[in-house]
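=== Structure Prediction Worksheet ===
Name of assembly: unnamed complex
Input type: mixed (protein and possibly other molecules)
Chain count: three
Listed entries:
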Amino acid sequence: MRAFDEDAVVFDGRSGHTHHLSDSAARILAVLQENGPATAQAVLQASAECVADEQFGRRMLDDLQHAGLIEAITPAGA
Amino acid sequence: MSFEYWRQHPLIGFIRAPEVALGTFGPLQWSCLIGTARRANLMSRLASTAAASGQDDALPARVVEHFASARRVAQAARTATFREARQIVAALEPAGVPVVFLKGAAYILAGLEAGNGRLLGDVDILVPRDQIAAAERALVAAGWMTTKIDNYDQRYYRQWMHELPPMRHLDRGTNLDVHHSILPPTARLKPDPALLWDTISHPAEALGAGVLSDVDLVLHSATHLFHEGEFDNGLRDLVDLHVLLVEFGGAGEDAFWLRLLARARQLDLLRPLYYALRFSCALFDTPIPGAVLSESAAKGPDSTTARLMDAVLLACLTSSIAPARGPGLGLALLAAFVRSHYLRMPTRLLVPHLARKLVVPERG
Amino acid sequence: MKLSQRPVPSLEMELAGSGLMLEVGGFNVRVKSSVESVVRGLPRLYADYTVLDSAESIVDFDISLNPPSQVRRWLRPQIQFLLDGFSPFKPLPREQGFALFEWGLNWCIANHSHRYLVIHAAVVERDGRAFIFPGAPGSGKSTLCAALVCRGWRLLSDEMAMVSLESGLVRPVPRPISLKNESIDIIRRFDANATFGDAVRDTAKGTVGHMKPPAASIARAAEHARGHRIVFPRYRADAACDVRRLTAGETFMRVASNTFNYHVLGRAGFDALGDLLACCAGVSLEYASFADAFEVIEALENEL
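=== Predicted Assembly ===
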C-alpha cells in the first residue's frame, strides 16, 4: 500500500488490481496492518476511533470488502 | 535450407551454446538475434538461457535492454498463469473434476526450467473424457464462455477432436483450452487416454492441480508439435522440448530415456518422439544417448519419407524466422498442415473439412 | 553524420536496399521503404538525427514500409508496416506512409520497453523540471506540447513518458510531433518557423501532419529528466482557465489508466508510479488559450 497525505492506493497481488482508498480508509487500514490481522468487528472499532461515525465505518468496510482487502486482514472470517 | 544452414543461425546457435555465441557475435548477429527472437516469441527464453549459463555480464548493453524488458513480460505471464490456475481449480474442484495442466502452464506451475521465460497465449488443461460435460458446466458457471460459435466448428471440436471449442473468461479475458486426450479419437494412432492419468504428479505450487509425468510432458510436446500442423510457435515448441530433455535427461539420467522409450511404445507415440529427438538433437545438440537415437530411428519412417519429412518439417519449424516467404515455404506449410489433418481425421472426413477451412473465414 | 548531410539519391538507394539506420532517442532503427510518402518525409522530419553504420550498430527495430505483397498493389495502393518481417497492423493507403511509420514506431517502443513505465503522455522540460501531460486523444496535449516546444521548452516526447523503473527519471525519445486537423494551422500561426511534413487527409484521425522536433532536443536525448508536475490538460474554447490540484491517489489512478504497460509491470509498476508521485504532484488544467496555459505552467514551475 502507498499512503499519501490525503489518500492511498493499494496493490492487490492476488488479482493484480490497484485500488484507490480515500483518506480515512487508508489511515484505518494502516492501523490494522500495523496491528496484525483483524476481524470486521475490529475494523468497525478502529474506524470508530479514527472517525466518530459508525455509518462511515460500515461504508468503509464495504469498500475494503469490495476491494478484496478484507479477506487479507480477516483470515478467520468476519 | 539444410540443418547446417539453420545451425549457423544466430538464434539457434545462441540457444545451443550461448558462450560460443558471446565469443563470436558481432553487430550483425546480435541484430539478427534480437529481430528473430522477438518474431519467434523467444526473447525471454534467451534471457533465461543467458542467465542460466552465467553469461549475463558479457552481453552487449543493447541486448541486455531487450532481455530485461522481455523478462518483465515473462514475469507477468508467470503471475497470470498462477492466477488462472487458482481460478480454474476453484471452478472444477467443487464439481469433482480432476484437472491436469498442459504445456506452458504446466512448465510454469511445476517450476521447470522450460517454464522460465515462457510466454503463453492460453492455458491448456486435461480433464477425464467422461467428465468433459461436467467440466464445461462448471467453467461456464464460473464465468468462462465458448468462443467459435459456428456450428460446424463446434462439431469439429466436440465430435472429432480431443477438446472443447476454445473458451474465454468474461471478466479476465483469458483463454482456456479444455482437452480430454492428447490425440483425437478419430486419428489413426490410438493411444488410450486413461494411461496418462496413472502417472500425474501434484507439485505443491500447482494448487491442487496435476501435471503430467516427465516423459508424458515430453511426449505431449512432441505430439503437439509434430502432429498438429500449426507451426506459428514451432521453433518455440522445439526449444521447449530441448529444454525439457536437458532437464530430465541430462547429467546421466539414463533411467529417464528408458522410461521415455517405453512410454512412447505404450502410448503409440514413437513416431512423433522420433521427430522430436531428431530435430532437437540436429539443431540444439540435445545430449541424447546414441542408443536412444538409434532405437527411435529404427521406428522412424523409411529413408525416402525421412528425407522428405526432414525438408518439410525443417522449413515449417523455422518459418517464423525464415528471411523471406518463398513459394517453397508455402508448400511446406501446406504439406505439413495436410499431413497433420491426415493423422487426425479419416480421409472421408478430411477433404470436406479442409475445403471448408479454406473457404469459410475465421471469425475473430 | 546527420541525415541532412546525406545526399538524397544515396538516401533513396539505402532505403530501397539494405535499409537506412537512424538513432532515435537511443533506439537504433533500421528503415526500408520505396514508398514516396516515407522517402519524402524522412529527410524533412528526421534531418537532425544521426545516421548509423549498419555493420557497426545493433538494430533494435528492423522496420519496413512497403506495399503488401498481394493483389491490392494496383487497386488502391496500400502500404504495410513490418517489424522483423511481421505485420502487426492492417495496411493503410499509401499516402499515409509516413504517418504509419510514426504510429508503427510508437507501437514498437511502447510494447518493448518494460524497463520503463510507458505513460501515454507528452513530456517537456525546462531548467531541470519535466512536465508530464497525460492525455486521451482530444485533450489537446500534443498541441500544447508543440506550442511549449516552439517557445523553447525541451521536447522529450509528444506521445510517451518513459519513466525508468530503476532511476525514476524520464527518458527522452524526441520525435516529430504528431498534430491533427486545426492544430496544424494553430501551430503554424503560433510559430512561423515551425517546419512541417506533408499533411495527410482522411486518416482514421482526420488530417494528420508532423512538426519537426528542434535539433537541440534531439542533441540532448541522452539527458534524462526528473518529473516535476503531472498536468492533465483539457482544451475548451472560451472556457475560463481552471486549475485544480488533484490528490496523489487521484493522480495515481488517472496516470495508471493512461499507462500502456501498467498491467504488465504489476507490483513493480505500482511501486514506480508511487515513487513518481512522491515528487510529482498532479493538477488538472482547463484552458482556452496558450497564454493561459503558459501562465499556469510557469506558476507550477516556481513551486517546489
